[in-house]
């Protein structure tokens, strides 16, 4: 008996995966993960050192869903600009047969990563966000600001810092031109990390740093920090004292963050206990509380979960209609 597989390219995927819907879908996936209604293996890491390449393989299944997903995403940093790519393979959860290939050039990863930041801001950021600091100048610098605008509109100032001044200037220009920046919102590059984060209501770190960048003493009262660059054991963006000082530390996965997130470094430094953090899905499910006071320092450590890819891919397939090509097997 013949079967078919759908092939969707980046244009098809972009046309179906808007940020607001992705935030809601990722939130539901995080709830299922934290309430034991999903399956997710450990991340596979592969490096190509001669090209400064990193490859991550993630997979996931949401109980009762008709499909499961395996995703391969890559970042090659030896090119200028860095090269990002990926493919999402969707399988039938009843038979294991492949049903779709999303040749998305990494867009699913970009969108679902930003969506998790949007979920974090929804429950942890101050009700009124006027000033945002972004540490990093890559794709997530843009995408995280887009997600934040969905859940906390009305930002008045964005300060962007990057190691490379030219990339920082390009990022500032992109944010001004491409994102729906409110009228009167100032978007500028910062001379230093400290200058960027001081006085900010929300701090977003999205770099590939192997050393801590943000220190606790620079952070204002009541700030929320979303850190998403530490997706490997050797990566780090926050000094462990940020987590030690925080009133609430939230993670996407306690197990995964204890192995390779900011939590991992704080535990190794003896400044934090592995069982202390709350999972974001627990907060979304109403099992634990998010921000409860305006003066709280909240931190969310996001390492990226395969269930987020499942949620995003499901949205794409539900909305794609007749887009793409169909292969007869």
| Domain count | 2
Unreliable stretches covering 5 or more consecutive residues = none
Mean pLDDT: 94
- What is the general shape? globular
CATH architecture of the largest domain: 3-Layer(aba) Sandwich
Major sheet: 8 strands, mixed
CATH class of the largest domain: Alpha Beta
Helix content: 25-40%
Description:
- With 329 residues, the chain is α/β, with parallel strands linked by helices.
- It folds into 2 domains: 4-109 and 307-328, ornithine cyclodeaminase, domain 1 (2-Layer Sandwich), CATH 3.30.1780; 115-304, Rossmann fold (3-Layer(aba) Sandwich), CATH 3.40.50.720.
- Helix content is 34%, strand content 28%.
- It is built from 11 helices and 18 strands.
- The strands form 3 sheets. Strands 1, 2, 3, 4, 5, 6, 7 and 18 form an 8-stranded mixed beta sheet that branches.
- A hairpin with a 4-residue loop joins strand 4 (53-62) and strand 5.
- Helix 3 crosses helix 4 and helix 8 (254-260) packs across helix 9 (262-268).
- The longest helix has 18 residues, at 107-124.
- The chain is globular.
- The termini are close together.
What is the compact description of this entry?
The protein is of the alpha/beta class and 329 residues long. The chain is 34% helix and 28% strand. Strands 1, 2, 3, 4, 5, 6, 7 and 18 form an 8-stranded mixed β-sheet that branches. An 8-stranded parallel β-sheet has the order 10-9-8-11-13-17-15-16. A two-stranded parallel ribbon has the order 12-14.
């Amino acid at each position: 008996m013949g079967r078919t597989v759908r092939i969707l390219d980046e244009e098809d995927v972009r046309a179906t995966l808007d940020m607001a819907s992705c935030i809601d879908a990722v939130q539901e996936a995080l709830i299922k993960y934290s309430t034991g209604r999903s399956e997710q293996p450990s991340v596979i890491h592969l490096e190509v050192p001669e090209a400064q390449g990193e490859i991550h393989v993630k997979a996931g299944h949401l109980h009762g869903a008709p499909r499961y997903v395996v995703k391969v995403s890559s970042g090659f940093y030896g090119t200028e600009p860095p090269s990002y790519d990926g493919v999402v393979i969707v399988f039938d959860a009843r038979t294991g047969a492949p049903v779709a290939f999303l040749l998305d050039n990494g867009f699913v990863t970009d969108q679902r990563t930003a969506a998790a930041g949007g979920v974090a801001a929804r429950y942890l950021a101050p009700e009124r966000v006027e000033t945002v600091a972004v540490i990093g100048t890559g794709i997530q610098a843009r995408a995280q600001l887009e997600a934040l605008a969905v859940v906390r509109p009305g930002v008045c100032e964005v300060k962007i810092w990057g190691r490379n001044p030219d990339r920082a200037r390009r990022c500032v220009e992109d944010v001004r031109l491409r994102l729906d920046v409110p009228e009167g919102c100032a978007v500028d590059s910062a001379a230093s990390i400290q200058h960027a984060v001081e006085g900010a209501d929300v701090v977003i770190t999205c770099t590939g740093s192997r050393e801590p960048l943000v220190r606790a003493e620079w952070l204002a009262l009541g700030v929320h920090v979303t850190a998403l660059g530490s997706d490997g054991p050797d990566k780090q963006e926050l000094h462990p004292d940020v987590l030690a000082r925080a009133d609430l530390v939230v993670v996407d996965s306690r197990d995964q963050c204890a192995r390779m997130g900011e939590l991992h470094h704080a535990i190794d430094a003896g400044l934090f206990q592995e069982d202390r953090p709350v999972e974001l899905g627990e907060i979304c499910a109403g099992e634990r509380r998010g921000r409860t006071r305006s003066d709280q320092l909240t931190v969310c450590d996001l390492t990226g979960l395969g269930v987020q890819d499942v949620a995003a891919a499901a949205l794409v397939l539900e909305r794609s209609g007749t887009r793409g090509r169909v292969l007869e097997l």
